[in-house]
Amino acid sequence: MPSVIDPSPADRTALVDAVRSAIHAPGEAATAGHIETLASADLPAPSKLAMLARLKDQGADHADLVPLAKSVVRADLPEEQRLTVANKLIDRVVYAAGRDPLGRNGLDADPATTALMASLVPQVASTSLSVLPACEAARVDVAGQPVLFVKTTMWSTTPLADFEPVINPLAWPQCKVQSHFFKSMVPQGPQKPLPNPDKGWKATLQETVDFGFEVGEMVTNLDVVFHSNPTSIGCTYVMAPNGSQDGKILHDEGYLLAEDLGASQGARRITTMKAVWFSEKNTPVDEVCPVWSLAAGLVAHMCLQETSQ
Fold this sequence. Notes:
Elements: H1 9-24, H2 26-29, H3 34-40, H4 45-57, H5 62-70, H6 79-92, H7 111-117, H8 122-125, E1 135-142, E2 145-156, H9 164-167, E3 182-187, E4 192-193, E5 200-209, E6 218-229, E7 232-244, E8 249-260, E9 268-278, H10 285-307
Antiparallel strand pairs: 1-2, 2-9, 3-5, 4-5, 5-6, 6-7, 7-8, 8-9
Helix pairs in contact: 1-3, 1-10, 3-5, 4-5, 5-6
């Protein structure tokens, strides 16, 4: 992968604002210059593809989307051809829960999609990492407590070991864009190794996050278990007793899991699940789903881009 230029804090803030605008206020994204920010940003191509689909779905004008679409078209093509491909890409992408923007099934693409990807940057064409995961969200009851349940799934040809900083919660605040969401993960005591034959640890971590749900930063102690082996890397977390340090969260648990699907498929599947309920201002399902999906996608794409240099 190409080297990543570390953007300034101001540039990273502008990027996060542009991404949030694409989700929360897509109608304002063009007039505020956010689409141009997304197009010029050092954001992985699959994330740009996901934002393109999201903006189109929310009614952004076709002409306003051209710069973003062109940013994932191969730069070595003639300008006229790049514009033609960009327009075809805008017409093709679809935003829908559980669906790849190009309609791929996992890593499989139909002939027409394969032909289109040949004109896109290699990160999309080779599908080294899937597009931003779609997610499913629903309110369910956990021991009598209403919760918001969100699940995301990605597919990738990236080696399994490269997902450790994506899965290991201690590494979450170290990624450039991710640090805007995960402010800190601070151990509240020593790590305890897992019993053989498992490799990994368990510990209580104090998490400070801000996903833009209009409730500000949230500080929560989580009991975390992290494991790794030749076929999977994963972690589970659940809010510790009296874990919400600011009273903003009533329930918080989930997992992240990267699995090697074997040589026959040559792919990895990355699944995340989060069940959460805030004490107030619980965000509607149709709003929190794309936000959490976006956060999960940026985590994977930006961290992988940094660790693969």
